[in-house]
Amino acid sequence: MKATRKVQQILANYEGENPGVKGNLCRMLMEGRLKGTGKMIILPVDQGFEHGPARTYGPNAPAYDPHYHYQLAIDAGLNAFAAPLGLLEAGADTFAGQIPTILKVNSANSLMSSTSGKDQAVTASVDDALRLGCSAIGFTIYPGSDRQLDMFEEIVEMRHEAASVGLPTVIWSYPRGEAISKEGETAIDVAAYAAQIAALLGAHIIKIKLSTDHLEVPEAKKVFEEQQIDIASQTARVKECMRSSFNGRRIVVFSGGAKKGEESIYDDARAIRDGGGNGSIIGRNAFQREKSEAMAMFDKLVSIYKGSE
Amino acid sequence: MKATRKVQQILANYEGENPGVKGNLCRMLMEGRLKGTGKMIILPVDQGFEHGPARTYGPNAPAYDPHYHYQLAIDAGLNAFAAPLGLLEAGADTFAGQIPTILKVNSANSLMSSTSGKDQAVTASVDDALRLGCSAIGFTIYPGSDRQLDMFEEIVEMRHEAASVGLPTVIWSYPRGEAISKEGETAIDVAAYAAQIAALLGAHIIKIKLSTDHLEVPEAKKVFEEQQIDIASQTARVKECMRSSFNGRRIVVFSGGAKKGEESIYDDARAIRDGGGNGSIIGRNAFQREKSEAMAMFDKLVSIYKGSE
Amino acid sequence: MKATRKVQQILANYEGENPGVKGNLCRMLMEGRLKGTGKMIILPVDQGFEHGPARTYGPNAPAYDPHYHYQLAIDAGLNAFAAPLGLLEAGADTFAGQIPTILKVNSANSLMSSTSGKDQAVTASVDDALRLGCSAIGFTIYPGSDRQLDMFEEIVEMRHEAASVGLPTVIWSYPRGEAISKEGETAIDVAAYAAQIAALLGAHIIKIKLSTDHLEVPEAKKVFEEQQIDIASQTARVKECMRSSFNGRRIVVFSGGAKKGEESIYDDARAIRDGGGNGSIIGRNAFQREKSEAMAMFDKLVSIYKGSE
Amino acid sequence: MKATRKVQQILANYEGENPGVKGNLCRMLMEGRLKGTGKMIILPVDQGFEHGPARTYGPNAPAYDPHYHYQLAIDAGLNAFAAPLGLLEAGADTFAGQIPTILKVNSANSLMSSTSGKDQAVTASVDDALRLGCSAIGFTIYPGSDRQLDMFEEIVEMRHEAASVGLPTVIWSYPRGEAISKEGETAIDVAAYAAQIAALLGAHIIKIKLSTDHLEVPEAKKVFEEQQIDIASQTARVKECMRSSFNGRRIVVFSGGAKKGEESIYDDARAIRDGGGNGSIIGRNAFQREKSEAMAMFDKLVSIYKGSE
Amino acid sequence: MKATRKVQQILANYEGENPGVKGNLCRMLMEGRLKGTGKMIILPVDQGFEHGPARTYGPNAPAYDPHYHYQLAIDAGLNAFAAPLGLLEAGADTFAGQIPTILKVNSANSLMSSTSGKDQAVTASVDDALRLGCSAIGFTIYPGSDRQLDMFEEIVEMRHEAASVGLPTVIWSYPRGEAISKEGETAIDVAAYAAQIAALLGAHIIKIKLSTDHLEVPEAKKVFEEQQIDIASQTARVKECMRSSFNGRRIVVFSGGAKKGEESIYDDARAIRDGGGNGSIIGRNAFQREKSEAMAMFDKLVSIYKGSE
Asked: Do you know which InterPro entries this protein is assigned to (chains A, B, C, D, E) (predicted)?
């Protein structure tokens, strides 16, 4: 399928990358109802690992079934579906070729003691991603954790292997750990820094959280104030994060966090759109609602990203 | 031997998996007195490693002999026999091809200090499993331990290797360690979480413990209460665990723990059956009784799983 | 994109195959103007290798440029484009993700002496296919050649490697060589035999030539006559070839050979359609015409395969 | 050093190739007196292997010394110097970084019986090229030889390895062997075919011989005549060869063969220039003359390629 | 391009090193406006990793774009451009072959807790450097850190691998950590020691900071005083550092640190020049100014290093 000019412009930023990686990026950008717009909505379902099944699927019981998520992503016309190994395998044959998948290759969980450090286990491989026909791998890093350097080394190796076989890498860059306060985890200076680190590590797609106007690092705070960098609105903060992602040369999607009101989700999407972000990665806010509600929400989000609302 | 419709339905859930893995799952499901029912009884004998010989075999001296266990599993018409390397090797030739075996590839023991962390040693390989003609490998993880991430990385690699040569993986998912209270080890929220983790790690068969109605993790407790998830009876709790195993798309067997009264064992089996579980994995409660008693107990369990008692 | 029931039925025939391979088959079947119909038109451009540039591109000079072929395949809404390494590379970045590509991994040429045997050189690897983002590899075998056994061993190894990383294999099964007469190369018994060999070697897609009613092998001739196998029409012969491809469980596309009249091409397509074949692989008959003529021809072929003409 | 627009246009044709390969192509195109013009003159010194020392260096004794050739290439302001392993090693340290070098990785010789087949030995590796700081590897193929398929397989593997570490591949495509007459070795249809084969095998730079208006292959002859392809002049024939090199998307340099008169060399260069070729690869015609004469000749060639003569 | 006598003298110090490594050193020494002088100015842009994007690029917004830095290095006629993986990749194709690049293969960041130790993550490989066409790899060590021994072992392994494929290694030798006071980080005895350690680890180019006349280590202080080593001026201290770098047998470049006044930068350069140093590595002082100012500054620095100011 012929790629739109917009998509071709985005792909051109991945210069020097092989056609396999670009082809898979194209595949995700040309899928679903936002195809060709340069915008993306991704459904991530790794919360069963992170928070346990009841907290994750309990609010909407059909979501206990892996097929539910594949079907939701397809029916809602999303760009991609991301999940850990076992969950992807549980529907990989039924839905083969019907929706681009992202294999989340590392995972943490809630049954970790406060002294064990912020870290994740590598739970899948690039070989798994090829075997399952995935379009990308996904990996979480924790800038701010005392384990971050090890995590960086892990993803750099996996990214190298993945790219060599034509698979792009999505980095979930989530600041947390010993060096950062709770409030700092979503501070704008830290969010922009997290985006920059992911970009420098070679992420093809960067996933960060929407941020607040808090400034965590004193030296950064000083620069934000001196340079009068606008961080008053969410739109302004998205802009700063895009600028920190090689001046927009990398695809950045923003996550919404725990379930919240719909209007708030739509406002987020408008800010992402107006700030030049590439889209949303929405998990619990989608699959913890009844399917009809989730479908309506995605429908509205598509309209927003298309610019009509 | 033609697989029953029930067994074919179960195998169909392992979609995308190769015929080698499915063939071995079929072999276990079509073995013994429960063949074709979709139910399983497995005899595991790794307690000599975990607790030492006297605590394990002392109550029934013939059980010191590895052949005793092979013969018991065969005579009782069980689906499979699981044990560590040395024990399997000690009867592997005599009983070659007579009972599906599961090579337990990691093991802990009781001679570990309280500060050494909850972990196990990898004590056998996929090559060993092939050489010994096993039908699966078995691996224990400890969600809640500070060593859990390493354990996850180990099993993910071994599972990948095992599946690539047609061997399914059974994960013993036993919560314990720094992040969990003693009572929490069998809490229903934790048990269901343990099942979910095993499923996400790619287990073909999940082994967990029967649980209590305790709720360990505050955030989970809140959801169980809000969503009014029924955990009053063992049957209800088995249902919740099956739901947490990809909505029943994975085979789950439940272990009984230390030796206890027969009626209690039968009640457990009825709860497993009525909650949609796939069966029992019974070690000490079998081989610590005299063989005739054990045979009678298995006879009764078979009846229960067939639905007639 | 949701696959049609027809495509899902076709994919179900590739049982035991991993989701990666099925996903790529789906990708080709769900591409272009025939998407979802189970029919395919593929543009192959390896004749520059086989016959030299002037004989190949001379009749339509723009075809000297590799981009011409990518663009033609995209503009005509075909299912896939097949070519050797260098030609694919020359447009792989510009057209990344826009049309499924098949990397032809072996090639012969016309500068071979009559005594050198019918063989091809392996000119690309599975790694190349991944790096270039291809959807499949393609390989030619010559049943009937004294080198055929070596060719079979080559493709079986490459197919194994390709499938393990999610890439299907297309086998060009072209009878020729010491064991076969010129007329026998297109004999129906030989064509059906060539299809059967490709299927047995594990081809995911089989490419054979349309055949004549000649019967080459005396023992085969006897059976065709005894069993009164209908080979009178091209439709009947296509049916026999499909039957020989695991009773239609494998995708089979038919090639047309040197440039010829349009009506003849359309009659071929109708026979392929009516005989249950999966489509056409058309090279010289496409790119040796002016682009507007080629586009009109593909338009007509699409209509024929959709059943309307 | 900033690359000229002309050089950037050439590099853009190597789409999908990594920056290492492009960087080395750029390095050669931006070296010497023709830097930035898109034209190249390369000094190849592998004739000592091919014809023996006396036939090679005898006419100009200083040429027995490897340093002579390095110095000549540097002093004349050429783009690159190509030679086999030992010869490059003999000056690699002295001239490190001063002239791009091409490691000729296979070689034939004149001490081969007429029955041993047209083939070459692989006499150096990609590792050698990196260790010696080379800018490319060079490899000879003999289309027309009964050994050609093996040669194709060798170069395809080496090219893959070389490109993965940032080294371009120059293919010397020299038709000869059982399938071709002596006159056919330089026939225009065969020369264009040789260029096409090199391009399809993935050559980054193609080296072929200037051709005659002879047409060797009957089927090709027919097309040349039908399509009225102009082959009357050397300029026209260079054009046909460029067209056969992916419509000019690949760099093509032409060799001059045995020593001949200067005017003839200059006429060749003018034809190469006017036909759109990228330059000359001149060995014996350079180093078999006295250095002052060779310098004067190169000076003249540079002027021709710059378009002023 | 013929190397100057000065450059050849410098290369001769790398005796026993292969021509690939020397060729790349030559390439950097023969690039830009200082080519052939033995002096170098390098633009390093890894501060986005070290300090975050706002602190790094905020003062000069165009610097958020990776292309800005490539272009600045080229336009200013510098010798090389150094950056981490992601940043180099973001312009590697556009600027392929136009400026020697140094791949910074390890990186720290500011989101590290005070208890996590002074260390860096390895974020790129030698393979990456080859693929991207780099002329060297760069690696930071922290003499004085509790992690320094691990860092030494990492770089020694990478240096070995890099040199074997013709890539020189630049060591950023930055004293810091548990064993050193804040003032000691730039003490002359420590700076000279840092240079010596880098040289002993096999650095081809050593990068250290300009130092103060503070003496940190008591035993060293004693010797400096006894031997009356001149450390009064920056020029004298540069001399001491060069002496400590194998008596000037290794290339040493000095970094300037945070943005400061221009005159101070020029004085530094004069001291480097007069003390026998090889040049400056200037990041923030360049790209945090407007481009026109940065260009003027580089222009002045070139003049200073050429000896005319």
From this structure: Aldolase_TIM, DeoC/FbaB/LacD_aldolase, DeoC/FbaB_aldolase, FbaB-like
